[in-house]
Amino acid sequence: MGSLTAENNIVLSADDKDTTLADRNTHATRVAGLGSDPEKKALFASVTKRIDYTPKFGTELHGIKLSQLTEQQSEELAALIAERGAVFFRDQDDLDYKEHVKLGKRWGPLHVHPLVPHTQDNPEVIVLDSRLSPPSRFNTNDSWHSDVSFEPAPASFSILKFEEIPEAGGDTIWSNGYQLYDDLSQPIKTLLEGLTATHSSDIFKILTQSSGRKTFGKLNDSVHPVIRTNPVIRTNPVTGWKSVYVNPVFTREINDLNPIESKWILDYLADLVSKKLQYQIRFHWKKNSVAIWDNRSTYHTGVPDFRPYHRRGVRVTVSGEKPFYDPASGTQAKAWEVTAKAIVAKQEATEKANVEKANVAAQDTASATTA
Ligand SMILES: [Fe+2]
User: Fold this and answer.
1) Which positions are annotated as active-site residues?
2) Where does the record place the TauD/TfdA-like domain (predicted)?
3) Residues in Cβ contact with 100 at an 8 Å cutoff, skipping those fewer than 6 apart
4) How far is the CA of 165 from the centre of ligand 1 (A)?
5) How far is the CA of 145 from the centre of ligand 1 (A)?
């Protein structure tokens, strides 16, 4: 095991001994959230306030203590995260490392990061401390990615809590992979469906060599880089919706295309992720805020604007199923048509009721005047 820093009580080197792949990355054997109550009645019975960040993406829930969820509530929450992409909570002061791990384990095996430091006694709880990460143009926290997409069992959910926040700045932004897929033209969809891409952990070696940062453990060539082939269009197993699953940090090439074609398409998709504001939500952290997101269908990036202040977060990462693409999958756009119709019907009913109420009031006034 690596060295401890006295003040932060964290282990800097996660991989000094030859951690095998099986030790740290196992597929989920079930899909958390699948088959739970579509209305999520158990979860919403405890919710005091719901704030949707956009109609399709991102939700903040008040009234929930993540350390006190029932099994049914945690299943419904998993489904909600898959549908909304990311769900946010405030004031989770009682979500200590033990409870943090317990919540993650409800949804699947926990990932042990091969290189990022972790808290003492909790290899599954990694530490994101800006003091350990000097600014770098390769810094993964200012680049769009989905967590550990290079692993054989990439992350389903990430659960991130900030224990220390900067006095200003340091927000995180997420981008919606469902919407990215839905907005592509049919010829581009047809091209990408069925293609695979190569993902690699080699960025960590580049980071270590370029910045001299101390954050990462021994770069064992038998383990690193980890290289993985994933479908370019991925089906989310909970929602059954298609999303685009390539990212600029870990995806190296689209297989079967020539390098120029591959670069062109990866750059184009990365541009859409980072520039299309309508795909994005932004979260402003407070101390003890928690964000949980679905890596299968979203991208995220930290905003590197907070120095000289510092921040320290702890993350538990849940390993998901083997990524797959099912041509028969649905889409968020299709599911959204039903939701949008219901919203319009509700608006029309409210407007009609308001008009009727105004008419009744006008008649009452007229009657009073003529009486
Ligand atoms: Fe991340």
Assistant:
1) 145, 147, 300, 315
2) 52-317
3) 125, 159, 161, 314, 316
4) 17
5) 6
